[in-house]
Amino acid sequence: MTVKVEMGGEVSPKSKKNLEEEEDERGNWGNQCEFFLSCLGFAVGFGNVWRFPYLCYKNGGAVFLIPYIVMLMCAGLPIFFMELALGQYGSLGPNLIFPEIAPFFGGLGWAMVMISALVSIYYNIIMAWAVFYTFASFSSVLPWSHCNNNFNSDGCYTEEAQMVCTNKSMLYFNNMCLRINHFCGIGNYVEFNETHCMDPNNTNIIKPANEMFKRISASEDYFKNRMLEVTDRTWDDMGSMRWELVGCLALSWLIVAACLAKGVKSSGKVVYFTALFPYVVLIILFIRGITLEGAMRGIEFYIMKPDISKLWELEVWSDAATQIFYSLGSSFGGLITLASYNKFKNNCMRDAILIAFANCSTSVFAGFVIFSILGFLATELGVEVGDVVSSGSGLAFIVYPAAVTRMPFPPLWALLFFLMLITLGLDSQFTMVETVVTAILDQWKHLRAHKMKVVFGTCGVLFILGLTMCLQGGILMFELFNGWSAGISVIICAILEIIVISYVYGIDKFIRHITDDMGIYMPRPLKTYWYTTWSVVTPGVLLVILALSMYNISPAAWGDYIYEDHIQILAWFVCISSVAIIPICTCWVVWKGDVKWNNLWKHTENFCPAQERNARGRGSTGGAKADVFRYTHDNEGFVKEPAEIYPTLQEEKPPLYNNGIDIWGYYSNHM
What we know:
Blueprint: E1 3-8, H1 13-26, H2 32-43, H3 46-50, H4 52-58, H5 65-90, H6 94-101, H7 107-136, E2 156-157, H8 159-167, E3 171-173, E4 176-178, H9 180-186, E5 190-191, E6 196-199, E7 202-208, E8 216-217, H10 218-228, H11 243-259, H12 264-274, H13 277-290, H14 295-303, H15 314-328, H16 334-339, H17 348-381, H18 393-404, H19 410-443, H20 451-465, H21 474-484, H22 488-517, H23 524-551, E9 557-558, E10 561-562, H24 565-579, H25 581-592, H26 610-620, E11 628-633, E12 645-647, E13 657-658, E14 661-662, H27 663-670
Parallel strand pairs: 2-8
Antiparallel strand pairs: 1-11, 3-4, 5-6, 6-7, 9-10, 11-12, 13-14
Helix pairs in contact: 2-12, 2-17, 2-19, 4-17, 5-15, 5-17, 5-22, 5-23, 6-7, 7-11, 7-19, 7-22, 7-24, 7-25, 10-18, 11-20, 12-19, 13-17, 13-19, 14-17, 17-18, 19-20, 22-23, 22-24
């Protein structure tokens, strides 16, 4: 009689229980909807509301959608799906998954984590501003609707107050109506005529009266002189701490920490509100916006005057590529992190396609909302829509607040808008902070038992790092981080990421993991699309984006204030602080010598599904073996049907082997 021993991959009930406990320890999504909404919330952020509409108006209206969709298909969607598939397959955060794919590029994941940390510092400042405005909205008269506040500067004005003075043939200044001679005298000029002032020391210098003093709208005055108190601040004089902003920032971080206290198990429940509430508000604002006088002027200005000639301008394509890339949040490490908590068989390809197009649709819809309100504002002021168009924080905290003051029940519309901004920011902030926390817990697994302490500790450190942005001159630091923490560095990470997956690891193997291992059905046209984009199109587009970004780079600045030379050095330090981790980690791996040179470019055995990796880890550390012995016999009279499987657990009884046969297991069950 001969006995053949086969090593199988099944596990005993006790081993399975241990694997499930480890999965629970790391955390998993409660259901697929939580993952979908978290990814959607991460992708849909401030830029969808305050940047895309401006780019669409600037780059030819509806024509801009052509390069936008082309760049979505060539760069945005391919890398978005790649990151979801990568995280789901390995069930690891970015800091651990890249060392397993190719040790030479092990620092790539930590670079992504660093980018998320840097962005989360200034991102929560925007949240703090929104919280500040939310509290201010609980007032019957919005404080940015007039110039009668103690903080208002002399140049503060409103169109209504100015019109009152104009009807009296007088000029408005410092909340008063002045005759031309008094008005000119404030600037040590004399009256030249009813509309001009003259320098008495040089009669050749004549200025229009409306250019004598710098004017500032009531909403801009509130933003700069009430909330920020930034007037006349420079890098050499950053002023004192704005304790009200510190309180708002602390509240913002407390909300983030509380929602992430139990990882995805808690944040997955919160996203049902934070991801869907912005859509409810956008729909309400849209319905209200299109009923306002002048709304169609704004919408027509936004998208209904296509300029085909814009398609031949390189800047338009550059804007489209940059917007779609940053809007989807690729190469921040967040998508890999979110997908790492997925079930192994989840159809992440379907999710990637739906989320990417939902994100783009949200941007277009938000444009209708914003421009309907800007059209109303332009009509009220008697100016062209182009005169009130803005982007970035200027749109959210200056232009829109000015518009709501002219609506019925202004506090209601202000409150809705700023609550929407808070929820838009929360989803993105959840993912970036979760990326940092996951990196810490994956790297040092013993800290998983103290997850809540790690979350609050991480949020506390990031809060402290953001305090410089709460100084009176803090917006100078904010703009430095806003422009330099995730610009060129993210593009570099994206290029390296797609090269590592497509060329170092192998695009064929990666696609097999998706289709064969994870069981995701991929029709031939889609497989051809992914193969073509991952191997050729997306790397090429990213290289072009990088080249254009480097070519169009401008000095760090805030408005017309160009930062000093030593601050420019600081800006570059912030920029390269993340990508510098990549060569540092490479040098460390080479210096340690744990990995042979020819293996630095090869994946390790730990780049595999989590269950396989965990089972192998237990076998090597003296835990319960996941493998079993399967006995087959050539003596038909001796065979029991069906064949029995005998788990061997090291901690229960050490087996005695003789030429590969478990003697104890064999004789105790067959003699």
